[in-house]
Amino acid sequence: VKSANMSKTSFKQDKYKNNLKLATWNVQGLLKTGKLENVLNEIKNLKADICGISETFWNESNDFYSVLPSGEKFRIINSNAVKSRKGVAFVLNHKMANSVSSVHLTSERVMAIKINTNPVNTFIIQVYAPNLDSPVDEKIKFYEEVRETLKYKTFQEVLVIMGDFNAKVGSSRIDNIVGPHGLGTINDAGRDLVNFCDEYNLFICNTWFYQKQSARYTWNGPNGVVK
C-alpha cells in the first residue's frame, strides 16, 4: 500500500543513488535453528534492500546484526511477539543499515522505520493483521495501531505500508484504490483495507500491474482452494 501522491523518484537512496527495492514476507516463525539464515539467503537472492517480516515469533524486541557464512551482513530490527506468536520486523542489507533515522515499535502487529532517502525521506510500516476468524475488537485495535503509527510520518515523507493484511480485495477495480489485477472476490477484511486506504488516500500497489494468477496470492491453504 502506497501514498497516492508518491512518485518513482521518491525511492532514491541519498548515499548510493540507487532505486530502493522493498519486499515483504510472512515467514511463519523464526524460532527453528537455521530458519533466519534461510530467510536472509532468500532476501540476498532477491536483492532486496529492505524486507518487512511478519510472524517472527520472537518474544523480545531487538536491533542487531546477522552475518551469513558468505559474508553478507544484515541489520534486523524487530518488535516483540506475544507468547511466541505474531511479531514483525525489518531486515536491511548493508547498504541500508545506517539509513534508519527512527524506529517506532507500536505493537506485536505494527512497527515502522523512517529511512533517509532522496529527494525526501521514506516512512515504512510493516504489519501483520488479524486473520478472518479473529474477534472484531482485535481487528479494530489493529487499524487503530496503524493510525497511531502514522502520526510519526510528516507530510513530505513518502509512505509505504506493507506486510500481511490477511485480506482479499477482489479483482474488480475500486476507484483509484484497487486496480484490475487483484484476486478473487473481496472479503470483509478486504473491505476494511479498502476503507482504510480511502481514508488516507492510499492505493494497493500489487493490484495495478499484471501478474499471472499463481503470483497474485501470498498464502495457499492446505486444500489448495483457499488463497
UniProtKB/TrEMBL annotation:
Domain Endonuclease/exonuclease/phosphatase span(s) in chain numbering: 23-185
Origin superkingdom: Eukaryota
InterPro entries for this protein: Endo/exonu/phosph_ase_sf, Endo/exonuclease/phosphatase, Swc5/CFDP1/2
GO molecular function: catalytic activity
Protein name: Craniofacial development protein 2
